[in-house]
Design goal:
mainly alpha, two-stranded antiparallel ribbon
Length: 202
């Protein structure tokens, strides 16, 4: 047994437990009167991985579902250092890439070199969004918080004063390699607007 390799792997596993402490601005689907029902980034990553497992048939171009699941599990680990940057926070997104790049180097650097390189590559591929898998993973990453907002009657949208035009614009940018998911999101957003979950203005 390579004790040094195992030690580095355990160090990484212990470190990523901190992802459970990174709180997002999305509500867990359920009772919106319970102020404790906020999602953390580890829960978000798990949910994206499950979406990948369940919905991979809807990719327009064939994807390796296991690779998409790996991307889902890896893509937000950097938030341990960089924090969760709210999608509609214009100022926070200015230096997001720099903060997350430094975080990736440190956190994935805890691993043995071969696993470090694999996870860095998965993270970079997701961020660059050029491959079939990365584009499909990004569509799922966009879909997941929309489901949470829709099934909590727009709780987080309203709390953060997010308007319909901003969410619709992100849909155009975020949903590639799945026409079916894009069409579903279009329906969901327009239904949310009609029901008053997603206001045009505040």
């Amino acid at each position: 047994m390579d004790k040094e390799r195992l030690k580095r792997q355990i160090d990484f596993i212990v470190e990523i437990d901190q992802l459970k402490r990174i709180m997002r601005r999305s509500r867990i689907i359920g009772d919106t009167k319970d102020d404790t029902l906020w999602e953390n980034s580890a829960e978000h990553s798990w949910h994206i991985a499950m979406l990948a497992m369940v919905l991979s048939d809807y990719a327009d171009e064939m994807v390796d579902a296991v690779k998409v699941m790996k991307m889902a599990l890896v893509h937000d680990i950097v938030e341990i250092d960089a924090g969760d940057t709210f999608a509609y926070d214009q100022a926070g997104n200015l230096d997001k890439a720099e903060r997350e790049g430094k975080a990736a180097s440190r956190i994935f650097g805890l691993l043995p070199d071969d696993q470090r390189d694999e996870m860095m590559e998965l993270w970079r591929e997701f961020e660059e969004g050029k491959t079939n898998e990365a584009q499909f993973a990004a569509a799922l990453d966009f879909l997941q918080p929309l489901l949470q907002n829709y099934y909590t009657e727009g709780y987080s949208w309203k709390l953060n004063k997010v308007t319909a035009d901003r969410v619709l614009a992100r849909n155009e940018a975020a949903t590639h390699n799945s026409q079916a998911i894009k069409e579903f999101i279009d329906w969901l957003l327009h239904d949310a607007i009609e029901k008053g979950y997603l206001p045009d203005k505040y």
